[in-house]
Amino acid sequence: MANPLIQLDFDIPFDQIEAAHVEPAIDALLASSKRAGDAVIEDSGPRTYANTLGALEDATERLELVMTVIDHLESVATTDALREAYNATRPKVSAFWSELAMNDGLYQAVRTFADTEEARNLPPTEARFLKKTLDDFRRHGAELSPEDKAKLQAIEVELTKLTTEFSQNLLDETNAFELVITDEAKLEGLPETAKLAAAENAHAKGFRGWRFTLQAPSMIPLLTYLDDAEVREHVWRAYNARAIAGDRDNRPIIERIIELRKAKAKLLGYTDFSDLVAEDRMAKTGAKARAFIDDLRAKTQAAFDRENATLTEYRRKIESADAATIRPWDVAYYAEKQRQDEYDFNEEELRPYFPLDRVLDGLFATAQALYEIRIVEREAATWDEAVKTYAIEDADGTMIAAFYVDLFPRENKRGGAWMNGLIAAAYRPDHASPHLALFCANVNPPVGGKPALLTHREVETLFHEFGHLLHHCFSRVSVRSLAGTNVAWDFVELPSQIMENWCWERSGLDLFAAQHETGEPIPEELYDKMIRARTYRAANAQMRQLGFATVDLALHRDYEPGSGADVMAYGREILQAHSASELPDDYGMLAGFAHIFAHPVGYAAGYYSYKWAEVLDADAFTRFKNEGITNPAVGRAFRDTILAKGNSEEAAKLYERFMGRGPELEPLLERAGLL
Length: 675
Fold this sequence. Notes:
4 domains; five-stranded mixed beta sheet
């Protein structure tokens, strides 16, 4: 059987890849990579960069690409057969990486090379790669005893299985829910766009009426606008009770994941898992990450309390002095009403100005103006007919990258939004190979014969993920492992989050925001309302993120699995302090916290990174504001000092080179109206 995974090239034949190809390809590539690693050890000649670090990089390149493609397909086009094949291969690949990281022969080969004259005179990027490789060997157990190496390898394999199971349980639980409403009177308050989407969804499934799911484009309008509190409560509870019962119960999985991470950290000589993961990031220690979060919380608490008291007062004013306490499923509903009353602003007013095609054109136009590039459509095989493909051409016409865009929800696709780098090419001045990437989202699809009309938040999401993609595609790093987004985790969100700023600037919006029928730009009056309302309940938005970061750090620093404590209750107590209303006893957000439990590491003990990077992005954007948000000179500086550099230097140095100083907190607080 011809296997398209075995010989992947730049144009990946997504339309030819089948579940039956997965296991044979991975087995063959694991064997090939192992032989290549053994060849590094067995090389009897003098140790050089080429036969040691270079050969080690090359040994796993194809395996990494193929596994990334399989990971991606399981996220966007899963089937029962693909899931079965994926679940069979993931533990094998995890075991391989664990063995490789603990391979004493490879470790000694690198150490031997480190003592050579060539190593002492390496160019800066290659020298950094050598240092990081030695550090990675140590951090992954190369210096452990054989017995402890076996324990660590078993931990890694089990973590891979458990985090995969967590993710699949969550997807299945999300897809298992549906709410069909046949009485239109129960839809009072819901925007017409949401009603049309629900009607088309019902029709596609063979139902009469309106069908709602737990996918964000369906659920968020319902929780924000629907007058019927019972329906809001039903949907809110369903979303926050995913994977906490039955055959897809994630609670024991969470306990075991935390236990394994704790054991891994101890084996490697760290106080806790947060110190293990933070060591290679800007924060350096879990304690510093926690201190950062605690400081932001202290600066936010008073405004948070005021906002929530004001919302309660507002409900009593419009209903009665003895109106019921605001419950979690009421918060978005009353907050939206309060915002409309106080700012005369309804986010739905903006939706007609954000037709998807124009938003994409404007997103690309922003990047083209800033970075002096061209983005053009190209032909390539895809995994779904709705996926589009593009190329990025530099000023001289050279194609520096290509990418895929997959934007609509499907039942075979996981929720959320993300960017994946498929190919990160090592940069050579005489031969610059192109990069390959993709970004995915789950935005409102076209309904009622109209184009897909996005919310402003969905527009921000597309800009965010495209920022990640540009970070990958602009890389000019000579070592593949240090290229693109392979940077400190608390730095990786800077290029993405800074892009969201263009969605708020008048000159940025004018590049793409136009009424889908008339082509008119956003009226000045509506834009002014939008800007005035920007900081509405900003303290609540910030506290929500701080709550996720706090519970993440607490689980990986303080929580004792196996102590008899209920992990869900433990998490709920922490999140309650960051919540606008009292959480019910069955609140199960942790069972859906994919950021920290759907990957062996992922954002675990690192969710603070979003706020850390938000400080950087708010501060860095002040330079764009001062010198022109589409000023190509500033764009070139950001591209050259941040986006092109990957992990070739310390993140703090890259930032200081762009700004001429270290980061300052005040721009974030000012942007949020919290100074």
